[in-house]
Amino acid sequence: MPEKYLITSALPYANGPLHFGHIAGAYLPGDCFARFQRLKGSDVLFICGSDEYGVAITMSSDLAGRTPKQQVDIFHEINKNFFKQLNFSFDNYSRTTWSGHIPTVQDFFLDLKDNGYIEEKTENHLFSVKENKFLADRYVIGTCPKCGFDKARGDECPKCAASYEATDLKNPKSKLTGSDLILKPSNHWYLRFDKFKEKLSDWIDKKNWKKNVINLAKEYIKDLKPRAITRDSDWGVPLPLKGCEGKVLYVWFDAPIGYISSTKEWAEKRGTPNAWKDYWLDPTTKLIHFIGKDNIPFHTVFFPAMIMGQNVPYILPYDVPANEFFLLEGRQFSKSDGWYIDLEDFFKRYSTDQIRYYLGSNAPETADSEFTWKDFQARCNAELLGKLGNFINRTLVFTKNNLEGKIPEIKSYDGDDKNFLSQMKEAIQKADDAYSNFQVRKASQILMELAQAANVYFDIKKPWVLVKDPSRKEELHTVLGCCLECIKHLVLIAYPIIPSTAEEIWHLLGYNSKLEQLNWDKIKDTPVPFNQKINEPKILFRKIEDEEIAEQIAKLKKGLAPKDKKNDKVDSLKEQISFDDIEKLDLRVGQILSAEKIEKSKKLLKLKVDIGLEERQIVAGIGEFVQAESLVGKKVIVVANLKPAKLMGTESQGMILVAGDKEIEIPYIKELPPGSIVS
Ligand code: 2FM
Ligand code: ZN
């Protein structure tokens, strides 16, 4: 019986576009593992989808001036296409607003309730008098009760990954308005996680997972308390109880169940609605969750506890390979700060496999790692092109020109040949182990080490000399035969990371089959067939030039705020004014809620700005310098008492302050809430 794997990658929130930082941690390693296991002949189901409920969504949709549904519809499509562009092999990419998700989540809740794990309690919760509503999770900001980080969110700390109740935060404030919060009673439903302590402890003790994953899980288990799993909101899975309108289940309760409902959707789509049970209810299935380190507690403690409380015998995770973070030139990727890679431009210049290889060879498996343009260039040029591409190209071109493009027969081996063949065998075995243990980075090293060894062998054997001496024909055939056999090994090792290039090389070797439908061990053990005609060699990777990398680095730095440029054409100063003149100005902090281009104008943007007391529509002539969406959420300085005026037919009720004219920089306010006076 083949091994059965149910592989998941964390469901990304559909509240913004994904970037390479996300891909390197929880997604590419999952795809490589799924592709490897399929090639090994395992029965694999690879599941993902968009996480569409909760305050991460409502908060971003509020800021963008959209409904939550509009927001998730936009980003579900964008992210799904991004995965497609990166050649991901999900068997299903669902979304938690899929109709089958709600009943699945509600059944989870009802089972837990029937089994005595749910408690209703009236307790104090954080309430904003100003906004007249209870605030939770990301609507609240404060100091982390564990590490003291002062911008911790209401449910989890982005710095130390602690997860807690919003009322545990010190100095809680409204994220949107900055106003203080009071405690006010409200009734909510609590999951008695404390009741699962022993069972979770016994279960996790038997696991041989990554150390950091085990340690964090154990720390959580030690300290398990009942936790509120409902929220006051109209965006989420409704609480399935009578008279509870306006209460929904917490997003971290519904999201992991999304793995199950995505599998149900997969089963429905293929016309076998019960097929999801073959995975989720079969104890021999190995459930592997690929996640980022910030998601460890939910996948190793809270979701397993929820499963333990079910009447349906769902499987528990077999392993949780959590990765660290992936940065961009030393800082977190952030589109709103201008610190990002323009993906449209990226894919015009570079290939999917170049980025897959780069992210795989730099995967943040044991420590944070980063994208740097220079390193990207170095790896693409020195490794993909210089080692792998070069060896494949020289071997195929030589075969075409000197052996009528046919795989030669090997009749005898000398010590070097045998050594080379055993290097191939060893590399395949090591790659097998690396992929089986979720070590994509190591697999990519093994790939390049073998390509390098192959180049050395080619150089030592000098086939260009052998070909000139007819008495050494057999030797020549052995050398080329070994090199072509090595290409086959390289293809196998490369496939999980750079699948389309691997398929292409497989085709160049003269095969008509599709690699993805074949079997790792069979390919490994079957020599490339004697006399098989290879296809016309072609260049596999393009060289990345220094100038284009310099251009990318300059573009990145330009996107970032501070620019220390000397201004040689300084305008002369205006006439002096008195303090009274200054006093006339009413300058306020305003938060940009939405920004869009005004049609038919190159320069004008229409902004909706919250100035604390009211919302204003402001037309700003900055459209040539900034991307409209990068402004959303930013706090700027607004001239609040400027007489309204019409610009290209659109009313402007104020003005925002910017520096510069040919090139601009916008001063942003970080901490103070909208409405604060600027003087
Ligand atoms: O951190 C996140 O992006 C979450 N949306 C991950 C959810 S994983 C799973 F539980 F769905
Ligand atoms: Zn913290």
Give a verbal description of the structure.
The chain has 679 residues and is of the alpha+beta class. The protein folds into four domains: 4-107 and 253-323, HUPs (Rossmann fold, 3-Layer(aba) Sandwich); 116-238, Methionyl-trna Synthetase, domain 2 (Beta Complex), CATH 2.170.220; 348-525, Isoleucyl-tRNA Synthetase, Domain 1, CATH 1.10.730; 579-678, OB fold (Dihydrolipoamide Acetyltransferase, E2P) (Beta Barrel). The protein contains 20 helices and 25 strands. The strands form seven sheets. Strands 18, 19, 20, 21, 24 and 25 form a six-stranded antiparallel β-sheet that branches. Strands 3-2-1-14-15 form a five-stranded parallel β-sheet. Strands 5-4-9-10 form a four-stranded antiparallel β-sheet. A hairpin with an 8-residue loop joins strand 6 (140-143) and strand 7. Helix 11 crosses helix 12. The protein starts with a strand and ends with a strand. S-(difluoromethyl)homocysteine binds next to helix 7.
What is the CATH architecture descriptor of the largest domain? Answer: Orthogonal Bundle
- Strand content is 15-25%
Report helical residue fraction.
40-55%
Q: How confident is the prediction overall: mean pLDDT?
A: 93
Estimate nothing, just give the exact number of structural domains: 4
Assembly state (oligomeric): single chain
Structural class by SSE content: alpha+beta
Number of strands: 25
Cα radius of gyration in angstroms: 29 Å
Number of helical elements: 20
Largest sheet: 6 strands, antiparallel
CATH topology of the largest domain: Isoleucyl-tRNA Synthetase, Domain 1
Superfamily (CATH H level) name of the largest domain: Isoleucyl-tRNA Synthetase, Domain 1
CATH class of the largest domain: Mainly Alpha
End-to-end Cα distance: 74 Å
- Label the overall shape: globular
